[in-house]
Amino acid sequence: MNKKLLSSLLLLLTAIIWGTAFVAQGAVSDVLGAFTFNAARSLIGAVFMIPVFFLMSRRGTEQRERIADAKGRLLTLKAGLICGLLMFVGAFFQQYGITQYTAIYGSTAVGKAGFITTLYVILVPILGFFFKKRVSGRIWVSVVVAVVGLYLLCVKQGFVIDLPDVYVLLCALAYAFYIIAVDAFANRINTYLFSIIQLFVCGMVSAVFMLIFEKVVLSELISQWFPIVYTGVFSSAIAFTLEAVAQKNTDPTIASLIFGLEAVFAAIAGWLLLNESMTQNEIIGCALMFIAVVLAQLPKRSKRREVNP
Predict the structure, then answer these.
(1) pLDDT at position 183, please?
(2) 45, 181, 208, 256: least CB-packed within 10 angstroms?
(3) How many percent of the chain have pLDDT more than 70?
(4) pLDDT score of 297
């Protein structure tokens, strides 16, 4: 009982970290380019994960066995490369969308970005349908609710969707493909080495595009050290470790519902720390999207209930 409670609290902490990371992303949006910021935070996260990899692999026999031979190491490398590229696409569109919110509105709109990003929870089962995975009626209801919520959140007068909304939607789509890819590899790879590789890939690809398209000013990069370190160490490294540890003792349904609160914490953090406000329609839209996320994550009813030994 105590272990389950502790795990739930760790998952809640993970959702808080990921949600408040939107504030850190918003804080640098008018100073650093999207490629520069993502390169810095991803590479910091990769470096921070190295000791975590050695520590957790030493403690877990199963993790060591997954890279004991060349085949296992190659599969982990392949997974890291594929997911790292998808992470790069998702991270870029998310951060670029946030910078465009700042450019257009003079506000980071992190709450709005957080809720639109959360749409990946709905997109995953929809994409699964195209991979011949059955989608229940409840999921389609969730999709309808989410679309209504998205309309209220994003569409202005004259049926206009702002361009930053499209960028963040593309981020949600990329992360949906990312989740599907992780699911395909998860049970066959060393989780912690995989994390290092994907963060390194995301960071290096971002760095290449940074050198091509953005002007890097070292003083500006240093001035934003706190948001970079927070998102790199806490959001990318620590939160990932908390997730891996906590889900061992937590029902997956409870875990997914807690993770769905990431968007709520993004909105609350934007309100508390950045003095952001939302219109009545946008608040209703956020509520509907959150309801859709929760509905999509509820388990199917089963006639038999498995009892853990």
Answers:
(1) 78
(2) 208
(3) 83
(4) 64
Q: CA quadruple 192, 194, 200, 206: dihedral positive or negative? A: negative
245 contacts: CB under 8 Å, gap ≥ 6: 7, 10
Among candidate residues 210, 126, 211, 109, the one with its CA nearest the CA of residue 163: 109
Q: Is 0.90 surpassed by the pTM of this model?
A: no
Question: Once rounded to an integer, what is the mean pLDDT over residues 22-33?
Answer: 87
Contacts of 47 (CB under 8 A, 6+ apart): none
Beta carbons within 8 Å of 277's beta carbon, 6+ residues apart: 271
N-term to C-term CA, the chain: 15
The gap from C-alpha 294 to its chain's centroid, in whole angstroms, comes to: 16
The arithmetic mean of pLDDT across residues 135-163, rounded, is 76
Handedness of CA 34, 51, 260, 224 (dihedral sign): negative
- Which residue intervals of the chain are DSSP H helices? 2-27, 34-59, 61-65, 70-105, 110-117, 120-130, 137-154, 163-185, 191-213, 218-223, 225-229, 239-246, 252-259, 262-274, 280-297
DSSP 100-148: HHHHHHSS--HHHHHHHHTTHHHHHHHHHHHTT----HHHHHHHHHHHH
Q: Is there a contact between 14 and 239 (Cβ–Cβ < 8 Å)?
A: yes
Mean pLDDT of 93-106: 86
Q: Residue 282 pLDDT more than 80?
A: no
Scan for tokens 């608040």, then name that residue: 283
Helix H or strand E encompassing 156: strand 155-156
